[in-house]
Amino acid sequence: MAKFKSKSVSRYGLPKTGQLTPYVDYDDGYYQKGYPLAGFGSRFANLGDGTILDRATGLQFVKQPELIIPGVSVRADNQIQVAKGNYATSTVYAVADLVKDVATGNYYVCVIAHTSNGANVAADLVNNPASWRQTVWTNSAANLTTPKTMAWATAITNCEGLEYAGKGDWRLPNVKELMSIADYERVSPSIDPLFANCQSSYYWSSSTYAVNTGNAWIVSFVVGGVYNDVKTLEYYVRPVRQY
Prior knowledge:
Blueprint lengths: L27 H4 L12 E3 L4 E4 L4 E4 L23 E2 L4 E2 L3 E4 L6 E4 L3 E2 L5 H7 L4 E3 L17 H9 L14 H5 L22 E7 L6 E6 L5 E5 L9 E3 L1
Parallel strand pairs: 4-6
Antiparallel strand pairs: 1-2, 2-3, 3-13, 5-8, 6-7, 7-9, 10-11, 11-12
C-alpha cells in the first residue's frame, strides 16, 4: 500500500531554536531544523500595531507589555506605541505625559492632548476622564519604560481581560508557547530584538507544575531556561493570542 503524501507543505511547525553557530557537525547549528521553512520569510513579523507575529507557530505576541494602557474601548489607534513617560509639569498635557493621582497612588497616561480646566491633576482626572487612562501594568513604576511584575493569578486575569490592537482574545501563554520564542543564539535577553525591552528575567506561563500545584512554570529570558516557582511570587508577563 502506497504511503500517503501531502500535496502541500504546512507553514507551521516546531520553531527553530535560533542557534546559527555549529559547534560540531550534525548539531542544532549545523541542521537548523524548524519553521519557518526557507522561502517563507523571516520568522518574526512586526505587525505595526504593538504586536509581533511568529510565522513558525501562528502565535501573536504583545511586543512591549509595558506600553499596554488598559481601559474601555482600547483599540490599536489609541495605544501609546512610543511612551515618553514624561511627568506632566503644567496643566498643558501632551500625549504620553505621565501623572500620579496623589489621592490613590495610581499612575495615569495622557491619551488625548489637552489643556486642563482644573487646577491640578486630580481635578483633571474628574473633568477630563477620557483624556487619561490608568496603566495597571506599570502602576508601581516611575515611568512607562519599566514593565510591571505580578503574581500568577493576576497575570492570568489581566491577560484574559486585555483588549489590545483591536483584539480581545488575549491570554497568558502556556509554557511551550512561551519557551518557543526564546532565541538560543542570544543571551540577556535570549529573544529576537524585535521584542523590544524584553527583560532579562523570568516570565510567567499559564502552565501549572504537576509535582507541586502551588507552583507554575516560568521561562527565563536570560538564557532561555525553563523553571518553576511559587504562584504568589511576581514575575513579568507577555500576552499571546492565536493569529
